[in-house]
Write a structure and sequence with these properties.
- Keywords: Cytoplasm, Glycosyltransferase, Magnesium, Metal-binding, Nucleotide-binding, Purine salvage, Transferase.
- It comes from Meridianimarinicoccus aquatilis.
- The protein has 179 residues and is of the alpha/beta class.
- The protein has one domain (14-148): Rossmann fold, CATH 3.40.50.2020.
- Helix content is 22%, strand content 32%.
- The chain has three helices and nine strands.
- It has helices spanning 14-31, 48-57, 108-118; strands at 6-12, 38-44, 62-70, 83-86, 96-104, 124-132, 145-149, 155-156, 172-177.
- The strands form two sheets. The protein has a six-stranded mixed beta sheet, sandwiched between helices. The protein has a three-stranded antiparallel beta sheet with strand order 1-9-8.
- The structure holds 1-O-pyrophosphono-5-O-phosphono-alpha-D-ribofuranose, guanine and magnesium ion.
Length: 179
């Protein structure tokens, strides 16, 4: 698959992402006003740029943790088997947890991770996803905060890869095959 020639067309600019994150950060600050500490847990690898930008906008007392899940490998469709590659480093029982994800597509990844974390009895557990592709949903799942709803396109950039490439683009693009 990944040896097919392709180009990347811009879908969401770096400026639009930054503006949207500012708005989301204010909503999250309002939601957690009065909470003394929040665990912000990023889902690796795709969310690494989003979480870095989001936490720098949040004027809250936070801790950062990561969990790594993978279900796509180098493919463009979900294997439907979500592998936990790395667990959170810290305990979350009784704590307020916000899970940060780059993209909800079929919904398998985030719903699996949320079920796993919910079983650890956090005080609250919420989710934020930069991108939502509702047309592709296979399990009933909606993040609590969403950056952008996008059409059914295979996207890359701003942390998101195609066969491990393009994560370093500063914007979101869509893959267009040229063969
Ligand atoms: O809603 P879903 O259909 O489950 O798809 C979304 C997930 O797929 C991608 O992760 P991937 O498994 O490719 O791993 P990565 O984050 O390490 O790139 C993306 O980062 C989301 O985590
Ligand atoms: N790179 C990439 N990975 C995904 N995983 C689920 N949907 C997508 C997508 O649109 N792009
Ligand atoms: Mg991911």
């Amino acid at each position: 698959m990944s040896d097919r020639p392709y180009v990347i067309d811009q879908l969401i600019s770096a400026k639009s992402i930054a503006a949207r994150i500012e708005t989301l950060a204010r909503e999250i600050e309002t939601h957690y006003a009065g909470v003394d500490k929040l665990v912000v847990a990023g889902l690796l690898r795709g969310s690494f740029i989003f979480i870095a930008d989001l936490v720098r906008e949040l004027k809250l007392n936070i801790e950062v943790d990561f969990i790594e899940a993978s279900s796509y490998g180098n493919a463009m469709v979900s294997s439907r088997e979500v592998r936990i590659v790395k667990d959170l480093s810290g305990e979350i029982a009784g704590r307020h947890v916000l899970v940060v994800e780059d993209l909800v597509d079929s919904g398998f990844t985030l719903s699996h991770v949320i079920a796993l974390l919910q079983a650890r009895a956090p005080a609250t557990l919420r989710t934020i996803a930069l991108l939502d592709k509702p047309a592709r949903r296979e399990v009933d799942f909606r993040a609590d905060w969403i950056g952008f709803e996008i059409p059914d396109e295979f996207v890359v950039g701003y942390g998101i890869d195609y066969a491990q490439k393009n994560r370093n683009l500063d914007h979101i693009g869509k893959v267009r095959f040229t063969d």
